[in-house]
Automatic annotation (TrEMBL):
This is Peptidase A1 domain-containing protein. GO terms for biological process: proteolysis. The lineage of its organism: Eukaryota, Fungi, Dikarya, Basidiomycota, Agaricomycotina. InterPro entries: Aspartic_peptidase_A1, Pepsin-like_dom, PEPTIDASE_A1, Peptidase_aspartic_dom_sf. GO terms for molecular function: aspartic-type endopeptidase activity.
Length: 280
């Protein structure tokens, strides 16, 4: 079930939510999400992933007002402009050539423009770029708390350090949740942001058809942390052996790295890329 607009459909069909909206079946011209976070629970096979509300919002899931930002272009994807990003307390300049962001619940991580990705991870001491099978991802010392916030013209929305840690690369290095969008290798995507669940788990999100906008609100008290206890190595290894890759430092040196625990994480990255292709 696609949640973009009908203009994206290669089959010239209208998405379910838009059919309801155009048919006057929704109380309000919008839908909203609360996404659950699960930490250190590798045995979960099936569990609620959050709450989708069609035709309104659920006031028990957020507090304060909803901050709406109009879409930057005619409705297709839900696209906003990234006005600022802060990493480890330092503001990173976002040029107008690289500020378009697709807000997408189908994306697991956050894709950053190729032109910005190295500058983002340069703010995290000890971070390195991964290559080989894991090109596009960065790793950082697991004992480092990576703090990131993003703004789309108003509030600076914080991303929990828990969500910035995808899983272990070695015994002391963990993969980060912001990857190089250029690995998708599709024209134009390398200069865009793909803002997925790493960010969206930290806010209540509202997608409004008329006037076209995306809104964010602070989660209700008690919802910012979800079931499970903090584990710096949240991704658990699967039953199959994972490949070995190398890491590249900012100075260009490389070292071998066992990718045992990160196998599941890279599956998510492939899923991100595949989902984006399906939408095109």
């Amino acid at each position: 079930m696609g949640l973009g607009f009908a203009t994206l459909s290669a089959l010239h069909t209208t998405p379910f939510w838009e059919t309801l909206y155009l048919g006057g079946q929704l109380s309000e011209p919008l839908f909203s999400f609360y996404l659950e976070r699960y930490i250190n629970q590798p045995l979960i096979n099936s569990s609620p992933g959050g709450i989708l509300t069609l035709g309104g919002t659920n006031s028990s899931l957020y507090q304060g007002s909803i901050e709406y930002t109009n879409l930057t272009s005619a409705p297709s994807y839900w696209i906003l402009n990234v006005s600022s990003i802060t990493v480890q307390g330092k503001a990173i300049s976002v040029p107008t050539s690289s500020n378009l962001a697709v807000i997408d619940t189908a994306n697991t991580l956050i894709g950053a423009p190729t032109s910005m990705i190295s500058g983002i991870w340069a703010q995290v001491p000890g971070s390195v770029a991964l290559d080989g099978n894991y090109t596009g991802l960065y790793a950082f010392p697991c004992n480092t708390s990576v703090t990131v916030s993003m703004s789309f013209g108003g509030t600076d929305w914080d991303i929990s350090p828990v969500d910035m840690n995808v899983g272990t690369v070695t015994s002391d290095m963990c993969a980060g949740a912001i990857f190089d969008a250029g690995v998708i290798n599709d024209g134009g995507v390398s200069d865009m942001w793909l803002v997925g669940d790493t960010f969206l788990k930290n806010v209540y999100s509202v997608f409004r058809a008329e006037p076209p906008a995306v809104g964010f609100a602070q989660l209700a008290s008690g919802l910012s942390s979800s079931p499970g206890t903090f584990d710096p190595n949240p991704v658990q290894p699967g039953s199959l052996p994972a490949p070995t890759t190398t890491t590249t430092t900012s100075g260009g040196s490389k070292r071998a790295a066992s990718a045992y625990n990160i196998a599941g994480s890279l599956t998510l990255l492939v899923t991100v890329s595949a989902c984006f292709f399906l939408l095109l």
